Each structure stands twice: as C-alpha cells, then as structure tokens.
C-alpha cells in the first residue's frame, strides 16, 4: 500500500526531521498551512498503513518514520518500471534521459554513476 500525494508530502517532512511532534510537522508546511486536524488525519492514516510510528510522551506523541526514504522510493521506482516500461530498466533509462531535458553535464554525471555501479558489481 502506498501513500497519497498529501501523505507523501508529510512523509518528506518526517524523513527530514527524523522525529517530530505535531507542531514540528505543521511548521514545515509553507503558507497557507493546513489545519492541524488535517495533518492529524494524515498521520493517523500513515500510522495505520505502517509508514509512521510514534512514542507517547505525556499527552503528546513524537512521530518517526518506520520506512526509510530510500526504500520507499526504490519500491516506487521499481513499480513504475514494472508497470510502464515492461519491467525493463533500459526502456525506463531511455525514456528518462530523452524526456527530462537533462543537460549534457547531467547526462555525463549519470554516465559516471552507471560506470561506477558497473565497476562495483564487477568486483
């Protein structure tokens, strides 16, 4: 089960803060800030889905992510590749490099990343 767009936005703040009370999360939002009840509803749904845990501290709860950002996005990207690119990473890479208007410098950086990963797997 994934996160909705608004849950993903809140999760980004929680990953950034690592641990946060409701007031900390509300402070992260740009103006106009959502109502505290809206954020409370989102956090409850995310807790029910197993993405967020909390520690009761008196009357307040300190929230923390149960899923690493890298794990969440890795699963997300792999799902996109499977669903839209016939489970072909090369089809995805071709689409990504041609459709995202990368600069020559960014393409060179990607090439270096790929070459380093090949080297790492070759060892």
Automatic annotation (TrEMBL):
On the tree of life, the source organism's domain of life is: Bacteria
Per UniProt, the keywords (alphabetical) are: DNA-binding, Transcription, Transcription regulation
Q: Which organism is it from?
A: Halalkalibaculum roseum
Entry protein name: BlaI/MecI/CopY family transcriptional regulator
Q: Which InterPro entries does the entry mention? A: BlaI_family, WH-like_DNA-bd_sf, WH_DNA-bd_sf
* GO BP terms: negative regulation of DNA-templated transcription
Q: Does the keyword Transcription regulation apply?
A: yes
Give yes or no: UniProt keyword DNA-binding: yes
GO terms assigned for molecular function: DNA binding
Instruction: Show the Gene3D superfamilies listed in the entry.
Output: Penicillinase repressor domain (1.10.4040.10), Winged helix-like DNA-binding domain superfamily/Winged helix DNA-binding domain (1.10.10.10)
Family label: Belongs to the BlaI transcriptional regulatory family.
